[in-house]
Write a structure and sequence with these properties.
Helix content is about 30%, strand content about 35%. It has helices at about 1-10, 30-35, 40-45, 55-70, and strands at about 15-20, 25-30, 75-80, 90-100, 105-115, 115-119. It is globular. The protein starts with a helix and ends with a strand.
């Protein structure tokens, strides 16, 4: 299990997640995510998930998360995100899914993508 955790953390694609609070805080980001959003672990895991997008793009992001919440996942997402330094990038072909506990209760959402370009 520890080998899998290390492999995921070092993967060449982004994996991020947040909880289910009304304004969820990021609770995981692998090294690719930390590098892309230009944050260390401490800062990343204290950041409201909505702050990964500029205010102009937050409603679009929220709508996609609602759809993922209702159907269990969302594939092919494309949207602009912003790093902690203000650097903007376009995410392409992201997949978002609900994270469930062993009893099937939703405890968060996660996303992964391997394609992005800086704007």
């Amino acid at each position: 299990m520890e080998d899998q955790a290390h492999a995921l953390f070092g993967a060449p694609f982004v994996v991020v997640s947040h909880g289910t609070d009304p304004d969820p805080i990021l609770n995981y980001g692998n090294q690719a995510a930390l590098d892309l959003w230009e944050m260390g672990w401490e800062q990343f895991t204290q950041t409201p998930s909505r702050h990964t997008a500029e205010p102009l793009n937050q409603e679009e992001r929220a709508a996609m998360l609602r759809i993922a919440g209702q159907q269990g996942y969302f594939e092919g997402y494309r949207g602009v995100r912003i790093a902690s330094t203000g650097r903007r990038f376009l995410v392409e072909d992201a997949t978002v899914w609900n994270v469930l506990d062993p009893s099937g209760r939703r405890i968060g959402q996660a996303a992964t993508f391997g394609h992005w370009s800086f704007l």
